[in-house]
Amino acid sequence: xxxxxxxxxxxxxxxxxxxxxxxxxxxxxxxxxxxxxxxxxxxxxxxxxxxxxxxxxxxxxxxxxxxxxxxxxxxxxxxxxxxxxxxxxxxxxxxxxxxxxxxxxxxxxxxxxxxxxxxxxxxxxxxxxxxxxxxxxxxxxxxxxxxxxxxxxxxxxxxxxxxxxxxxxxxxxxxxxxxxxxxxxxxxxxxxxxxxxxxxxxxxxxxxxxxxxxxxx
Length: 217
Description:
This protein is an alpha/beta fold.
């Protein structure tokens, strides 16, 4: 039986992202310049290689639209993109207009997707599962809406298995969690296993914290 969505915690996360949406890009500026931009570009090269003409792709957790410059051409694939925060979506809409990108943007909770089973050929997430209130429920939903022959590509950060770093991340987790609802100590690989998603490939980008992950249902 599917777990119920924790509405109180979900609304709390939504409000936090709405609050920081005007300065979200500035908050991540240093990380973006130091490493994330390069990882993002390589990740989307892999995304495009896993798409075929006519495919339907979902970006789950579009945020302010940072990935949009890397989207494939509209004549190649159809793109849906969702986010729970109206504030973040507003900025994603502006980004799409600036870039002239065709994408269907929708306000939606990854824990309760308004899509039918076996719907998408490819699903993409980047730094999303740090803030999903119930990450197992979110992963179950991605598995449900992904076609049996489809893939889920993730660029995510998670709790390290290295003892010193692990303890430090657990100690400091309250800071980002209470500022905007993101957790730096999520056990994402364990959650993936719990859901029954199959790990086709994993690439460590920085220690064992930032990873590029390829999953199949």
